[in-house]
Specification:
By secondary structure, the chain is mainly α. The protein has 6 helices and no strands. α3 packs across α6.
Length: about 170
């Protein structure tokens, strides 16, 4: 008996591709929010520092920030497929429908904020010695903008997956 969460039996290789593609698309939307709305240089400075690339506000590394952010989006798109296709989740509100895609996108946006922005990112940045690391837990006015960004990531992901999954 497997202890790993099970997905529906009809999930195939193209579903994982759809999740990765939806994650990439959603990450572009979130990155644009980071560039134009979120006041701190998270994309250009904090994310590169997570991977050992020394970037500062005076010497940002936007190319590395975009690359790693898109990578995160693709990986989280794959995790979204595993989440959305669990029988208990799919049976509650089918993520293959427009309504289900929006509901699960909202949930996924909030969950990724809580886990990644509030908990993981501050710890990671403190461990690598980044001087601009947010405090742990990362809760403050920026958390609202982060939640907005993660929702702007996850709802397009959910919709892309639903539209292409049901066709």
């Amino acid at each position: 008996m497997s202890t790993f969460p099970q997905t529906r039996s009809d999930v195939g290789p193209w579903d994982w591709v759809r999740g990765a593609t939806g994650g990439f698309i959603g990450s572009v939307a979130f990155a644009l929010i980071m560039v134009f709305i979120i006041p701190k240089p998270v994309l250009e400075v904090a994310i590169p520092n997570m991977y050992g690339i020394e970037a500062t506000p005076d010497a940002p590394a936007p190319g590395f920030g975009w690359f790693f952010h898109q990578f995160h989006g693709v990986m989280l798109g794959l995790v979204y497929v595993a989440y959305a296709e669990r029988p208990s989740i799919a049976g509650w509100w089918d993520p293959r429908t427009i309504g289900g895609a929006i509901i699960h996108g909202l949930i996924w946006g909030v969950v990724t904020t809580l886990i990644l922005a509030v908990i993981v990112m501050p710890i990671w940045l403190q461990v690598v010695g980044f001087g601009g690391a947010p405090p742990f837990p990362n809760i403050g006015p920026g958390t609202v903008l982060s939640t907005l960004g993660h929702i702007m990531y996850a709802v397009p992901l959910g919709l892309f997956y639903a539209f292409h999954r049901s066709s």
